[in-house]
Design brief:
Blueprint lengths: L7 H9 L13 H5 L8 H5 L2 H10 L7 H4 L7 H5 L6 H13 L9 H10 L28 E4 L2 H5 L4 H13 L4 E2 L10 H5 L3 H18 L3 E4 L2 H9 L9 E4 H10 L11 E5 L13 H8 L4 E4 L28 H11 L4 E4 L2 H13 L7 E4 H7 L3
C-alpha cells in the first residue's frame, strides 16, 4: 500500500479557508451514520464518508479532494445539527472545497455554472436582461423607497420554466393580500449561496457585494425571499459584508397575513397532501410551522406527514451545488421521498423551495409516478385556492 503523508500546511490552509472547527471533530462517526448517502446504493455512496473526509482534512492528507468525495455533500446539515461536539461540518466542507476551487481546480461539470454566475450574475446560463421574463402577463411593481418589501426572486425561478410558476404564484398571493412590495429586476445577481458552498469564495464575494450595494442604493429595508437558500445567506452571510435588512421567507409572511385576516383560501382542494421540509427552510433556518399552517388553511386539503419530517427530514439532494450533479437512477435521495409519499397515500407532494421542487419532480418522473403523485410548490397550491 502506498504511504500517505501528513501535511500540517495543508491542514492549516483548509482551516484558513473556512474550516475553523475541523479539529473539533473527535471521529465519533454519528455524522456518517446520519448522512442520507447511507440510504442509497452506488459508487458515490461507497466513496463518500463525511467522517473520513474530515479526518483526511485534519491530517492534511490526500484523498479529500476526490470529486466524488469532496463535492458529494449536499450540505443538508443532518450531520451538523446532530453533532455532539457542535462541529460546523458544512463550513468545513466549504473550506475544503475552497482550497481546491480557489486553486483553479473546480470539477469540469461545475465550471460552466461558476462561469455563468461570473458573467451573467446567475448560474443558469440566462442572459441578465431576461431575468424579468417571468413577469410576463403580470403587473409586477418596481421597487422604490415607498414600497415596504423588496421581493427577491431566486435565479432558478427567474430562468427555469417550471420554477417561474412559483414566482408568479407568490406574486399573486402578495398582491391579493395587499402587500406593499416591488422587484428591482435585471440588476439583481444570484445571492451566491450555492456558489459559496461550492467553494468559489471570490465569486460569492463579488455577487454579494454587488447585491449589497444595489439593495442599499435602492433603499431596501425588508426582503421577501422565494427560496430558503436566499433567506439563509441574506440572514447569515450578508450582514458581516454590510447587508443588514429584515429578511423573511414568503411562507412566514403569508402565515402572518393569514393570521391577520388579510389572506384566505376559499377554493377547496379535495386531495391528500404531504409536505416535504426543505433542509434550508427547516434544519438550517428552523421554519417548520408556517408552511404547515398555510396548508392546513386550504379547504379540503387532507395533510399527511412523511416518515422523515421536520428536524429529521430527508434531503432532496439539491443543496451544496448538487442540483447540477448527474446521479444515476436508483441512487437519488428524491426517489426515496417519492416512495415515501406514495406509500403514505399522498396525491400531492408539496414543498417550499425551488431546488426541492426541481429534484422531486425529476425523481417522480424518473420513477414514472407522475400519474399517481403530483409535485407542486406550496405557493402554487395556495394561489390555486384563491377565489
Amino acid at each position: 500500500m502506498e504511504p500517505k503523508y501528513v501535511s500540517l500546511e495543508m491542514r492549516d490552509y483548509i482551516t484558513g479557508m473556512g474550516a475553523e472547527t475541523l479539529n473539533w471533530c473527535m471521529q465519533c462517526g454519528l455524522c456518517t451514520n446520519l448522512c442520507p448517502w447511507r440510504l442509497v446504493p452506488g459508487e458515490i455512496s461507497e466513496k463518500f464518508n463525511i467522517r473520513h473526509m474530515q479526518r483526511l482534512g485534519q491530517m492534511g492528507m490526500e484523498g479529500f479532494e476526490d470529486e466524488q468525495v469532496l463535492f458529494a455533500c449536499s450540505t443538508c446539515s443532518m450531520c451538523q445539527t446532530n453533532c455532539p461536539r457542535g462541529v460546523k461540518i458544512v463550513d468545513n466542507v466549504r473550506g475544503m472545497r475552497s482550497s481546491i476551487v480557489g486553486a483553479g481546480m473546480a470539477p469540469a461539470n461545475l465550471r460552466p455554472i461558476l462561469g455563468s454566475a461570473h458573467a451573467q450574475g446567475n448560474p443558469w446560463s440566462g442572459p441578465r436582461e431576461k431575468r424579468t421574463d417571468w413577469q410576463q402577463g403580470l403587473d409586477v411593481p418596481q421597487f422604490d423607497g415607498d414600497k415596504e418589501y423588496f421581493l427577491f426572486v431566486c435565479c432558478h425561478s427567474c430562468y427555469d420554466q417550471r420554477s417561474t410558476k412559483v414566482a408568479k404564484s407568490i406574486t399573486r398571493l402578495l398582491q391579493r393580500a395587499g402587500v406593499s412590495f416591488g422587484v428591482i429586476g435585471a440588476e439583481e445577481s444570484c445571492c451566491g449561496e450555492s456558489m459559496r458552498k461550492l467553494g468559489d469564495e471570490e465569486l460569492f464575494q463579488k455577487l454579494a457585494q454587488s447585491n449589497i450595494k444595489l439593495f442599499n442604493d435602492k433603499g431596501v429595508k425588508k426582503i421577501i425571499t422565494t427560496s430558503p437558500h436566499c433567506l439563509w445567506t441574506f440572514q447569515n452571510e450578508y450582514p458581516e459584508l454590510g447587508g443588514e435588512w429584515e429578511v423573511i421567507h414568503y411562507t412566514q409572511l403569508l402565515e402572518q397575513l393569514l393570521e391577520d385576516g388579510k389572506l384566505s383560501f376559499p377554493e377547496s382542494l379535495g386531495k391528500r397532501v404531504a409536505f416535504h421540509d426543505p433542509c434550508y427552510l427547516g434544519r438550517h433556518s428552523g421554519i417548520y410551522e408556517a408552511p404547515r399552517k398555510l396548508l392546513a388553511a386550504v379547504p379540503g386539503a387532507e395533510t399527511l406527514e412523511l416518515t422523515r419530517c421536520r428536524e429529521m427530514s430527508l434531503c432532496c439532494a439539491g443543496g451544496g451545488g448538487r442540483i447540477w450533479a448527474e446521479v444515476p437512477m436508483g441512487e437519488r435521495f428524491g426517489e426515496l421521498r417519492i416512495s415515501d409519499a406514495v406509500g403514505k397515500g399522498a396525491e400531492i407532494l408539496t414543498t417550499s423551495c425551488p431546488y426541492c421542487l426541481n429534484m422531486l419532480t425529476d425523481a417522480c418522473n424518473s420513477m414514472d409516478k407522475q400519474e399517481v403523485l403530483e409535485i407542486n410548490e406550496l405557493s402554487e397550491i395556495l394561489a390555486a385556492s384563491l377565489a
